Amino acid sequence: MYQLYAHPRSTYSMRVHIYLRYRNLPYETITIALDKLENRKRPFLQINPYGKVPVLKDDDFLLAESSAIIRYLEEKHSFANPFFSEDLRSRALLNQSINRCESEFCFPGSVIYFSKKFVPPEKWDTNRMKDSSKRIGRHLDILEGILETNEYLHENQFGFLEILYAPFIKNIDMMETKLPLSVEIWIKRVLANESVREVLGNE
Ligand SMILES: N[C@@H](CCC(=O)N[C@@H](CS)C(=O)NCC(=O)O)C(=O)O
């Protein structure tokens, strides 16, 4: 059975929980106490030298990075509705969107999220936070262009991208950015997905 090193409040871990449930893959969770800095000590540093969760354990194989974990499982199992199509260009476009999700949305989103959740307001780097909000706004406008005519981001089906975005769009109000209408509707649609609700529902 797969084992997932994770933390209940870790947005990146939530992605993998959502995926494993969506694909009905049995697994057990091993909680790493980030609040007690268990991730910065051995033995966890031998599991991931960067000291971050999630990490997947598949027998003797260890894999970190949420997006790489989901991709590995997706390629390992043959699902009837695979996220990666046979078509080279379709796969390339999905990879492009995955990279943009990470760099243009989740990274600036994390700057704001972690400041607001864990740093006292008097210590906020407000310029950096404002710049992050702007970047997120630009990204959402670009997503709006897709979502005006599609229910989902890639090939109009719930998939890899929705799973990557889900834990982050749950906190979209924190980003202090204008929400384009179709993006707002898409967020509600994604958060209503059964596997997403199972994982994020009580957050
Ligand atoms: N790019 C990584 C990011 C993982 C990440 O930043 N995890 C956070 C929790 S959400 C973490 O473990 N932080 C602990 C630390 O940096 O000390 C992924 O996609 O898995």
UniProtKB/TrEMBL annotation:
Listed Pfam families: GST_N_3
Keyword Membrane: no
Keywords assigned by UniProt, alphabetized: Transferase
Organism encoding this protein: Leptospira harrisiae
GST N-terminal domain sequence ranges: 1-81
Gene Ontology molecular function: transferase activity
CDD domains: GST_N_family
Record has Magnesium as a keyword: no
Similarity section: Belongs to the GST superfamily.
Name of this chain's protein: Glutathione transferase
SUPFAM superfamilies assigned to the protein according to its UniProt record, in alphabetical order: GST C-terminal domain-like, Thioredoxin-like
